[in-house]
């Protein structure tokens, strides 16, 4: 296969990202906080600017040309998302503010209609707070019960425990595809299959998956999929909820307002069709169009090439960083990508973060909005390096050396 | 090594981080407060034995970065024997110091060893680390309900 011979030209790619050519404390920026948010290619930045310069107007609301053009551009972005995740109907692509918004939409709307006292909802121990708290709020309101799939010492979910947790009472399952604090890739396909054998719908939090490999919602057969634009090289404040029509149709609106209605009288309001039923108010139009551009950019590079480049870089990083003396990786799942979480013996992650920052290296330190994961490992925080396809082996080498310097500071 | 970094991680700070003073639970404490920085997961408990508004004894336990741990350690060393009012005054001055609002050289000198935290002002992200212990002390001083039982 000829395609396999193609490689990403990282040095060429880096030219597409203006921020990668800036400096921090006088050193070239080494950006390793990609799990928090990704940098934006110039084409995305320009697309947003172009929108404000040439298309700005409200969508779905005007007969004038500008509004129609903006609406077309906005709806084209929806079509790009549809093809990107291989969905089959535009009615199933709901534009949101991000992963958090998408999950809250489902917890609130699905929960309102379908969750009753005594029902059970299953999540995993690996979840980001945004896939914990909305379910806790729902369970509190409905007197339902939240069940948590445990993880082992490597940071992998224990599948047999999941099998035991599922029962007649289970009404919903919501799990993360790739853990943002450990990098663990969950066996979501197996989870979905087992859930479907008992007619339980499953939401996949793909916030840390969508930017790293091709996702096919039909192949996966998930019932809902949530992700954020800003982790997909697109602007902040936009995201996606994919949902199967059979559920979305029966779910009540999440928020009320403009765009989501068909007709309003004080006696009775009827709702717009999908996906608009779930899109109340004026959205981040420029951001959504920017997300469409980001998807074009990723398609141009090729998701398969991105995956293989990142896999190779991650293996390199894993080996190189694990070899740093007194460094302990946190989370050693067999299936793992992009995220390398670690501790340095006797040194708090914050201090590591500050010292690396002096070399221009941006990493995340803290609990990564996954406090239960930290509790599971008995640590308050980790230092986290998360990679993207614009990172290089040289940057990994530079970081490994900088980590040795941390010990010099602490003497 | 960068001088700003050295300025932040001074020997005194590294020393107190490595061997924090008064790092234990005070069994006969009559005031206690818990401090938490949700952003980074830093967590500490300050224990006080307050008699007639004088800090007879003080201790802390907890988990945090070098800045927060050494700040707590130095704080306990300096506050011991001080009145509540003096302690609150020091907190105010300390806060001014780490936020870059204490400019007067005499005032800085009057802070004694606490002056080593002057470097923190160059690191806005770390101001919270340096002041967590002091906020917790402030709560403990004013927090009679949180008295921990000693029976
Ligand atoms: C796994 C995971 N889920 C959900 C979120 C929340 O995403 P957002 O803050 O963009 O809504 C994040 C972001 O950190 C994440 O990593």
Give the SSE layout.
The complex is a heterodimer of chains A (411) and B (151).
Chain A: H1 2-5, H2 10-14, E1 23-24, E2 27-28, E3 30-31, H3 42-55, H4 65-84, E4 93-96, H5 99-114, E5 120-124, H6 133-142, E6 145-149, H7 159-165, E7 170-176, H8 188-196, E8 202-205, H9 217-220, E9 224-228, E10 239-243, H10 245-248, E11 261-264, E12 269-271, H11 285-301, H12 303-322, E13 327-330, E14 339-344, H13 349-357, E15 361-362, E16 364-366, H14 371-377, E17 382-386, H15 393-410
Parallel strand pairs in A: 3-15, 5-6, 5-7, 7-8, 8-9
Antiparallel strand pairs in A: 1-2, 4-10, 9-10, 11-12, 13-14, 14-17, 16-17
Helix pairs in contact in A: 3-11, 4-11, 5-6, 12-15, 13-15
Chain B: H1 3-8, H2 11-18, E1 31-37, E2 42-51, E3 54-63, H3 66-79, H4 84-98, H5 105-110, H6 127-141
Antiparallel strand pairs in B: 1-2, 2-3
Bound ligands? pyridoxal-5'-phosphate
Oligomer: heterodimer
Helicity level of chain B, as a percent range?
Answer: 40-55%
Given this structure, which CATH class of chain B is correct?
Alpha Beta
The largest sheet of chain A has its strands arranged as 4-10-9-8-7-5-6
The biggest sheet of chain A, with number of strands, parallel, antiparallel or mixed sense and barrel status, is: 7 strands, mixed
- Please provide the count of β strands of chain B: 3
The domain tally of chain B reads: 1
* Poorly predicted segments of chain B: 145-151
What's the level 1 CATH class of the largest domain in chain A? Alpha Beta
What low-confidence regions of chain A span 5 or more consecutive residues with pLDDT below 50?
none
Q: Give the DSSP E fraction of chain A (strand runs of 2 or more residues).
A: 15-25%
CATH architecture type of the largest domain in chain A: 3-Layer(aba) Sandwich
Which fold does the CATH topology of chain B refer to? Sufe protein. Chain: A
Overall structural domain count of chain A? 2
